[in-house]
Amino acid sequence: MIKKVIPIVIICLLFSCSVKQKKQDIAEKQEKVNLVLSFLNLNFGMFIHYNMGTYHAEQWAKPNHDPKSFAPTNLDCNQWAKAAKSAKMNYAVFTTKHHDGFCLWNTKVTDYDIASSSYKGDIVKEYVDAFRKQDIKIGLYFSVWDRQHKIENKNITPKNIQYTKDQLTELLTNYGDIICIVIDGWGSKWGHGPNFNELPFKVLEDHIHSIQPNCLVINHSCKTDLNVTQLVHYEATHGQHCPYDNTLPSQQGPTLQSTWFWEKGYENQELKSVKSVVEELNFANTHYANYLLNAAPNDAGLMDDNVVNRLKEIGKAVTFSKPLMALPKVEKPHKNVTVTASSSSSDEFKPSNVIDCNLFTRWQFAKEDKKPWIELDFGKPETFNRVICGEFRKGVEKFKIEAFVNGDWKLLAEGNKITNNFNASFEDVTAQKYRMVVLESSQLPKIAEITFVKY
Length: 455
Description:
eight-stranded parallel sheet
């Protein structure tokens, strides 16, 4: 009798453990969903690009600059925070280290940092304190690619990984709760940062979560693969845009000025309009995406007057949609869209690449194609009033965008060079088919993305 009872007890114990594990898994999954929901309900944030590039008119600063060339004369993070508050921004992300490797905190693992500069202070701490004072949540930007210390593709060693972990430990230990880390220079074809084979995403994700479990890891690799980021970051300055049918938890990042880092003359620059910001923000927020607008401080360490004034104007015009209560089932963007083209140069450059929300896959027509076009069929009539597209390899000299309406192709927009970011609005049009026609090109272009939306 005893022999029969023991197996039954074991089975009951195993079943009980299985039920507990299942409940724990469900609870952990729900906790992650709640974190993402909480983040998406912040709606609007300020991206702040300020680092060595500010002092050398370099959007990607070269390494080996003299640390003392980083020399703000009137740095005031409280001014930045008040400007963000006036725009109704609810979180911020600050460039603690860009690709050149210069650190804006006193890191213990290198002298290429703020402690060796002309400024005596910890700018990361000043940023954190100032924005918390305005009740704005804190995020940090961190570049894995580090040109100063050769942490880059084909040079990922245990020592370099440990260096990266040590810096992340400092940032996540010394500055209180961090809601997100936006990581750049990792898994991207821009520059020479490490790929996910030599430095798997989980290595740094696990390290970050071992210190701050609730810190979202947002990888800025211009891909929509949730295996290498917790939220998708749409690169809005390079022809990438949140799609019309987006269900991915996302963030969209444009700039208020014309580039990420401030340059001389920007104090007189015409900035992104209030209308554009409000339209883009509203679209993002109603498509499961936050809107992270970059505002760059000048070389004195202040936001220019035109930036401060524009942010106030934005704040007066901004309203937010109702808070999200749940996340949708995640589906592939453009799931109902099929793409055809007049030709393609190879299997690598297939037409469907223009709708995959990946800036590093492109469509290229065949060399002998004299009348190249690419067509998006949405499966049913869809209404749009804006197109966003971009080239990876510049070559288009003249093109047009059309919709198939009542048996004819109707002109929606036209232009000369597309370059990396073409953005045009038009009157609302309802059609099932839309297309781009390349009329002139100087070389074989590589079209990265074509996105239609309705604001």
